[in-house]
Amino acid sequence: MQPPRAFGSTPPGGMPGYPTAAALQMNGAGPPNPQPQGYYGNPASSTKTAYGAAPGAHPAYPQQTPYTQEITAGIPPASAFATSQQPSMARAPYYPPAAVAAYAGAASQQQDMASQQQLQDLLQFNAPRHFIRASVGRLPNSSSLRHKCHLPLGVVVQPLAPPAVGQADVPSVSFGGGAVVRCKRCRTYINPFVVWESSGRRWICNLCGVSNETPQFYCRATDEKGRREDRFERPELCMGSIEIIAPSDYMIRPPQPPAFLFLIDVSLPSVASGLVESACQGIADAIRKDRLPGDSRTMVGIVTYDSSAHFYALKTQQTRPQVFVVPQVDDMFLPLSEDLLVPLLECKEAVLSTLAALPDIWRSTGCTENCMGSALKAATMVAKHVGGKILLFSAAPPTMGEAVVKREPNRDKGNSTTDRETDLLKPASDAYQNLGQQLTQSQLSVDMFLCPPAPSASSPTEAVYYPPPPASQSGMPTSQQQNQPMSGGLSGAGNVGRGSHLNGSVPASGVSFYDVASFATLAQFTSGELRFYPSFTRQQHGPKLMAEIERVLSRVTGWEAVMRIRVSRGWKVSQRHGRFYLRGSDLFVLPTVNEDQSFSVSLELDETATPGATDNILSLQAALLYTNSDGERRIRVHTYCIPLTQNMQEIAASMDPEATAALMLQHSMDLSLRAKVADGRSYLQNLCVQLMSALQLPAAGHSAYGAQPSLQNNGEQLRRLAFLIMGMLKSPAFRSTKDVTNDMRVYAWHRLASVPLSQLVAYWCPRLFSLTDWGPTEGSLDGNAEVILPPSIPLTSESMTQEGAYLIENGESMLLWVGKSVPSEWLLAVFGVSALEFLHPEAAASSLGRTNDSLGQRTYAMISELQRQRLKPDYMELTIIRQGDSNEQLFFAMLAEDRVQSLPLTFTEFLQKVGQRQLAPVTPMPPAQALPQKFMKTSAHPRPLRLSRTAFCGVCVPGRYTTARPACRADFKPCVLPLLRECFLSSLVEEASCKSARGITLRCHPAASCNSACDFEQSRLPHNTPAGGSFWRATRGLQYEGLAKLALRSIHSTQPLSNIQLLYVQWYPVTTLAR
């Protein structure tokens, strides 16, 4: 007997559970089947199934069991029921009902075993999760089910992700002198999920279903199960992620060497803020440490600019820099034909001497103009014959030359504030987008380090740091007992990051609005990266800039790359997100791609696909063709398969909160750019409400669908998703507060569009640590020589006291808040000061860990370990904030579980707002107990859908119509408030209070449709009503997930608590959550 089709799919013309024509033919009945179907619904040989397995030889079940032999033996052949008087095709065969039922039972059992085996194969052969993460582990098999679940379907791909802890590197595969084995139709690379036939001489593509001939050099016999005998000897047949060594056919020129061109702004703002010195030192440190990849193949060049472009000749044995100035910025040309981009190994000393001399060469500059656009053109002319990466260091947007973008942040004052804000989030011109497209043709990418200094200080000495009085007077350490200020040190933290010139010369003339949106497209279209350091100063931001320069230069990078993401038939890629230039309809052009870079794609069912052509799994393959830093052309292939289902509960249980939130982020950013930021926020909130309503599975023991217990535990997944969305709304990407400028928002969008998922989660869900209640082990080394971190605490100010010090980090920044009553012993051990007023925020970070106290050294070790963990991809600079400082709100804005100005909801209240809760069962109210008509508010809606009555709460009144516990029965007032709160929170009533025995005040939740407190009217019930007391009804409906109007009956304190009931609920069709 042949096993059934996998995944329970129904062959054409057949019904589930009944024998089909192909099945009947095995027993001598039915017409011949000219083209049987394969395991994935692809045309295949009648003797092959999934992954090359032969029929009946699947490891999950034997080919012929005695039970199946008995069943098939009971089904007579068709000739037994045919008569000689009739033609053979005039009468359909008849089968006894008992035999048909037995066959259906065996088929169902074999289908279940086949599904289990298929899931095991997917877990074994899929690409690892750090390469590909899908939003769900089960995809809907129809458009109607897809719209019902509201989930964004897609995957997040990080093709060059570093291997996870304990995992080996991606194996390399070489096909020798032969061609790479690929599908002749869709160009899919060979992978573990193809189906083998004809004893291994042909294979069926798992994406398009085409049968391909196996090359002669790649042929190998198959075993009795139809699988290749060398399956586990070839990584491409047993692993979802491989790297193929590409033959010469995949090269149009010799492999590109790693090339870095440093383009540095040397105008007055850059020099005065310390950008030139920090950039040169960061580059030089990376070169001295041999952090640049490529060994002898690496090439470097240096170009600087202000109102002119400056080229530096880098020759072997050169001792002094040679500078060639080109002032014709509108007609740029190269002053030299060589020695501008040179091999690093041969000219290392010349490069280092030039970098060391640059700050001194331009220290006395007085030029405030810069020609960044023309300088980019000059850098392109230097490196276009090789390709590579341009590292741009800029302190201000261009003011002259080519590609000058001019717009003011407050222009078009006739428009509304929202329109102006939306306009400032978009590029003012297409100049840098067009430039980026041109650079991709030369295989050049641009990494931008935008470091605008703060607006000018009133005097050079205003931003110079003076330590407090000597230790004899203040408790300061002796290392800081010099240069006392004439009128005391700087007070507070308002001077942090002021962009001042630390050498006391001409102060920087900074910019308050850089217009990042107009220049970010250059990094976007060249697959580069943008880093933004507002109010830059060397003292405050120099360490972060230098650490991130080293990270950019040293991480794993692919050169002159292209990538395609292919999906199986019946599906299509609807949207692509990340940093790339899309050539044609599906080709990602990536001049460079690094290990920290990720891409996301949204998937949709293809409505134009041929009916029946969709397989019962989705196969996806991401193929990246690139040159590694060693000069080898490689093809990184990741194959990932996701089964389809028609069970809504399976989809809900398989949701990945992190990947789902990442796709929601991409869609909300797109919507914000097309419309306005408020629409993006509304999209996130409304979609979160829909997901909570559609995906929340019944509680264990109350399932209405008979789901297995393993499918009923998605409550934690939904809570995790809600927390991520709430963190997204409270982050600078969507927070609507004055501290988030347009430049900061654009920068956040650019960074979040392509960072790894781990960085996204850290950004939305920071970690909070207490530093003042440690034991003896925190900050010390464990047995594996790793620093022991203290446990994190909830992200709420309720976890904090003014006697403590707390550290919060989100992968981008690290803030240390010190309470005003922190013990002086802790301050002395960690910072070396005896009182909080002597702790200067700017100098405190540098003095951390320099005391001889064990606690201070352990604190420094803990902070250094966090910075080391987060260095990929960003370096977290430490900022010290004292309680009461002007920038204290930066710390509390990161407490995601607290109310913030942009979203005044705690996490518990946010869950209640979006509807993540388990409602008590509702019992229809008897007609006799309905409220009198005169107490009902007439509704404009023609048909209420539901009229119900239930116990008031499941806390003190468990079950249906049960009395309260004796402790609650004794006194009404202590219990009524929690009861009211539990009930009304489900109706978006945020607060309830009892002013008297007969008066209850309710305040509407901010998410309700009304913007103020709901108007409740009190009317006296007839004296003959059973409960007596007061009747309350809402005169304004609360619109939230169908709940439109409620009324409740209040009772006197002497009445039993069991009489407190939700008396009248009227349900309307679902309405959207009001903004």
UniProtKB/TrEMBL annotation:
Keywords: Cytoplasm, Endoplasmic reticulum, ER-Golgi transport, Golgi apparatus, Membrane, Protein transport, Transport. Residues 656-761 form the Sec23/Sec24 helical domain. Residues 255-452 form the Sec23/Sec24 trunk domain. Residues 472-486 have a biased composition (Polar residues). Residues 405-424 have a biased composition (Basic and acidic residues). Its main location: cytoplasm. Residues 1-64, 405-425, 466-501 are annotated as: Disordered. It comes from the Eukaryota. GO terms for molecular function: SNARE binding; zinc ion binding. Residues 181-218 form the Zinc finger Sec23/Sec24-type domain. Gene3D superfamilies: Sec23/Sec24 helical domain, Severin, von Willebrand factor, type A domain, Zn-finger domain of Sec23/24. GO terms for cellular component: COPII vesicle coat; endoplasmic reticulum exit site; endoplasmic reticulum membrane; Golgi membrane. InterPro entries: ADF-H/Gelsolin-like_dom_sf, Beta-sandwich_Sec23_24, Gelsolin-like_dom, Gelsolin-like_dom_sf, Sec23/24_helical_dom, Sec23/24_helical_dom_sf, Sec23/24_trunk_dom, SEC23_SEC24_subfamily. It is found in: Cytoplasm; Endoplasmic reticulum membrane; Golgi apparatus membrane. Pfam families: Gelsolin, Sec23_BS, Sec23_helical, Sec23_trunk, zf-Sec23_Sec24. Residues 558-645 form the Sec23/Sec24 beta-sandwich domain. Residues 50-62 have a biased composition (Low complexity). GO terms for biological process: COPII-coated vesicle cargo loading; intracellular protein transport. Residues 787-840 form the Gelsolin-like domain. Belongs to the SEC23/SEC24 family. SEC24 subfamily. This is Protein transport protein sec24. It comes from Cyclospora cayetanensis.
